Structure formats: C-alpha cells, structure tokens
Amino acid sequence: MFSSIRTFSFLFGYLPVAAMKLKSFQKKKPQLSTEEYDKLIHTEPSKWASGIMRRTKSEVTVEGLHLLPDGPALLVSNHEGNFDIPVILSSIPKPFGFISKQEVKKFPVIPTYMEDMNCIFIDRTDRRSALKSIGDTAQKLKEGHSILIFPEGTRSKGQGLGEFKAGFMRIASDAGVPIVPIAINGTADIMEKNNNKIMAAQVRLQILEPFMPAVFSELPSKEAILLVRNTIKMALEQ
Q1: Other C-beta atoms within 10 Å of 115: how many?
Q2: Mean pLDDT, all residues of the chain
Q3: Half-sphere exposure of residue 236, counting CA atoms within 13 Å on the CB side?
Q4: What separation in angstroms does the CA of 4 have from each of 47, 108, 109, 122, 208?
Q5: Domains and CATH numbers, the chain
Q6: Are 37 and 97 in contact (CB under 8 A)?
Q7: Which of 168, 174, 179, 207 is nearest to 72 (CA)?
Q8: Are the C-beta atoms of residues 56 and 83 closer than 8 Å to each other?
C-alpha cells in the first residue's frame, strides 16, 4: 500500500521539475549535436525512472552493458509489465526513445518530453497509424536516434514470452541499424502479479549480443524474427 503511494506520488510529482528542465534543455539544442542532445534529454527520464524504482524497493540486476553498440540501434525487449520502461530507462545509459500508446498524450508534460526523447505515438486501433509508425521509427533511427520496441505488442504479465510481431524487423532492415535483444524478467512481480499493488521484486535485465544488419538482412524475415525471439527466450530461461 505505502509502496504504491510513494511510487505514484513521485511519478506525477516529478512532472513540474521535468517541465522546467525541458525548457532549459531546449534552449541548448541549437548548439548541440544529435548525440549530445539525446544524452542531455536522457538525464531527466533516467533520474525519474531511478526514483520510481527506488520507491518500489526492488533490486535490479543489469548484465551486458558492454555489449551496447555505438551509434543508433533498435533495442528489442520482451514486455513483462508496466515497470519495464522505468527499469530500462534507469539501467541503460544509452539514450533512446520508444513506441508508446496514443493515450499517453492526454497527460501533462510527459508527451512533450517524450517527443524530445524521439518517442513515436501509435493508435493501436488504427491500422494506418500502425503502418505509419514503422516508417516514422525507421526515420528516427536513420537520423541517429536509438529506439526501444516491444514486439510482443502487449504485456505478458509474467505469463511467458508471446509471439513477436514482424514490424520491428522491417524497421531495423529499412534503417540499417543493429538489433540489440534485451531480456527482462521480474517486472510483473512489482505490480501485475499483485492485483496492481506495488511490491518489491527481484528484476534481472540482460543486454544480449547485438545482431548486425549483415546478419539479419540475409535471412528470410520469419527466420530473422525467430532468431531474435529465441535469443531472448533462451536468456529468460537461464
């Protein structure tokens, strides 16, 4: 009960701070390179996510940071629960945007910050929006930004790895960037398995060996998708 209050109070209470920081960051944008601005923007979401995770009192183990490639990459993760994003934001120093539901735009401050993080908004009820998001994400990668995607499309809530939708492979192929598989285990224990009450959990995040474009571009799409999924599946089973 108290963990839930602490966590959600911080989640929304940090918004005024984030709004002020964003304004100061945007003033510096003309003087910075793409990489420099992405790093600057990443600092506040990382602090926000770290604050959230501390308030859940969860222990997060991170492996494989040395495997993160330089330059833009498509981060491909399984999707256990609502705390996947805070765990990844607080654990991975590489700046990234991500694909998010259109409904997030109803919140104050958050969508503006997400746009500067290079997040993509998608209306999952509209097929044209979903198709457009593929092109928009590939374009972000071509511009030098990294993007996180959950190819299962929805949370598993700790019930096992779902099937991967094909869009992420098309994005990586179009953009010509590495795919970085990420295996995350334990986030559903923070909330989804507790009737949406927040409890401390043991979370393990594994960054796995990247797949370079030369590898997956030579495979049929279905085989390449299965290769990435099986890599994550094997890591989750360790």
Answers
A1: 14
A2: 90
A3: 22
A4: 19, 21, 22, 28, 32
A5: 2-237 (3.40.1130)
A6: no
A7: 179
A8: yes
